[in-house]
Amino acid sequence: MIKDILKENVTQEKTGIYYSYLRILNDELIPAMGCTEPISLAYAAAKARCILGALPDKIDVIVSGNIVKNVKSVVVPNTNGLKGIKAAVAAGIISGREDKILEVLEDLSDEQKDQIIHYIENTCINVSLSDSDLNFDILLTLYKDNSYSKLRIVDDHTNVVLIEKNGEILYTPEKINSHVIHNNDKLLLNINDIFKFANIVEINDVKDVISRQINFNTAIAEEGLKGNYGANVGKTLLSLYGNDVKTRAKAKAAAGSDARMNGCELPVIIISGSGNQGLAVSVPVIEYAIEYNVASDVLYRALVLSNLIAVHLKSGIGSLSAFCGAVCAGCASGAAIAYMLGGGVEAISATLSNSLAIVSGIVCDGAKSSCAAKIAASVEAGILGYHMYLNENKFSNGDGFLGSNIEETINNIWRIGKNGMKQTDMEILNIMTEN
User: Fold this and answer.
1) Pairing of strands 58-63, 124-129
2) Which residues does the chain have with pLDDT short of 50?
3) Number of domains into which the chain is organized
4) What is d(CA 266, CA 287) in angstroms, rounded to the nearest whole number?
5) Torsion angle, alpha carbons of 209, 215, 217, 221, to 10
6) Helix H or strand E encompassing 267
7) Same domain? 300 vs 258
8) In terms of Cα–Cα distance, which of 137, 144, 127 is closest to 160?
9) Are 108 and 45 in contact (CB under 8 A)?
């Protein structure tokens, strides 16, 4: 059991990996309100407005295809149900709260919500597709009379790489900035070291960030089951399959997505830049901890493991891809459940291998209501992968993309998600822009 595992590792010294893994958790597990791509647009707009120092009368928005894909069909929070790029940008302009970062649209007044609609109707907001080869690229230029401000975000939701005003470059990142450090930390991730870290990490080092994840993500999952959001995937699962722990794990994670994809104003603690992945990686583990009366420190360790495995699975694919990120998070939660119920590296690796073999073909066709169902399917695969291990069943190494060990399998997943699905991503975008 976990107590025995801890005894084996308690004397391990803290290394650079220890602090790198702590940085990853603190950098990744941050709050965001609503789907993160429109919120990133809103944050960029609020920051660019502050640089301009005035309410712009014209805005040029240039974005990569994956931004279009993930903004088109989700409700922007605090906008009275508006969707799309123009709504996200206008909401950020009216908010102006760049200091709130990915919670930039928190606490908008009724008057501001009305102003957003009026602003869209009376302001020239030009949206065009970037010719950049980056999957995540946002470039905003705001104009007021003879002044302008320009701001660019690339690679992830808050990674500002350019601030310009009236021809003067105000900011470009240093060669070694926090984004580069964060990516270098991710290079150290592997299943064996994640397992060791989960065993030895001092709870006080992760308590604040993990407890916030538990509280925030549980709250929006419960709201999703109470309210009427989107396709109500979470509610449907409970009404159809009952109230056992496996169904609750899927349903509550899906319900959180039901809510956040459809305008719920509660924040989510994200992972890999995604609230849906943040829900899939945490809520099922929390639900199993409740069912089995797991001690709080063991739950913290399991969530540490779940979060880091999800980041590891996603890091080689990139922030946006045609590979559904819920797969990484749902499979990671299955591995964390295995760990929490006494499994070691073998159980974790087998659970991941089994579950990845099941659902790695799920494509991302943008953020929308059906993301909740993809979360449910991925969590189901994670749980099934664990029970296959318990019953001494597994998919064979060398079958399909399964490698000779878990790290080789993960590398193959990276190849599929980053390289193999490029054309898929383009076709999905073509289909979406034709409609």
Assistant:
1) parallel
2) 1-3, 5-12
3) 2
4) 20
5) 170
6) strand 267-269
7) yes
8) 137
9) no
pLDDT for 222-259, tens place per residue?
A: 999 999 999 999 999 999 999 999 999 999 999 999 99
**Which residues are CB-neighbours of 370 under 8 A, at least 6 positions away?**
231
What is the rounded distance in angstroms from the CA atom of residue 172 to the CA atom of residue 186?
23
Residue 344's domain spans which residues? 2-32+189-434
Cβ-Cβ contacts under 8 Å for 286 (sequence gap 6 or more): 214, 217, 218, 299, 303
Q: Which is nearest to 5 in space by CA: 200, 153, 169, 186?
A: 200
- Residue 178 is predicted with a pLDDT of 59
Residue 314 corresponds to which tokens in the numbers above? Answer: 């996603």
Regarding whether 309 and 247 lie in a shared domain, the answer is: yes
Burial 261-273 (b: 16+ CB within 10 A, else e): bbbbbbbbbbbbb
Count CA atoms within 13 Å of residue 252 on its CB side.
24
The reply to whether 199 and 152 lie within a common domain is no
182 assigned to some structural domain: no
pLDDT score recorded for residue 182: 66
Prediction pTM value: 0.91
What pLDDT does residue 10 have? 41
DSSP 14: P
Structural domain ending residue among the three candidates 132, 155, 177: 177
CA gap 50, 98 in Å, rounded: 8
DSSP 49-88: HHHHTS--SEEEEEE-HHHHHHHTTSBPTTSSS-BSHHHH
Q: CA-CA distance, 285 to 336, in Å (whole number)? A: 7
Q: To 10 degrees, the CA torsion angle through 230, 313, 273, 368?
A: -20
